[in-house]
Amino acid sequence: MDPTSSNPLELPEILREISRFVTLRDAVACAQVCKAWTDNFVSAIWHTIDFDVHKLIKVDLMVLKKHGHHIRVVKNTKQVDHILVLLKSNASKLRRLYLNTTTSSPEFQAYFYDLMRRNNTTIEHIEIPQNP
Fold it and tell me: Cα–Cα distance between 45 and 27 in angstroms, integer?
């Protein structure tokens, strides 16, 4: 970017600030404008993962590894496959994790423990449903 440009949208600081307030759909559209915009909007795209909305199980592993470090909030984690996606994505800065499962299989617990160990310095909130 040209530092002498008078276009405020060419300033990374402005783009990062805008990325905090756009919808996911708008962030994806903005990321497609150019490389500079992609760099500023990719964290907004990957910030929150809701397994009821996002079908990450089918996402390419390379894409997950490239952008997984942007994931901060995970919602509706219901099955072992969801935990495995997070582990494969290298998500290591989770702040909030919302489980929506009553699964207590040893496999689920082991993967969940691995995920918590990886995120133990950044996790602020874990919501786990109470058993009926």
Answer: 6
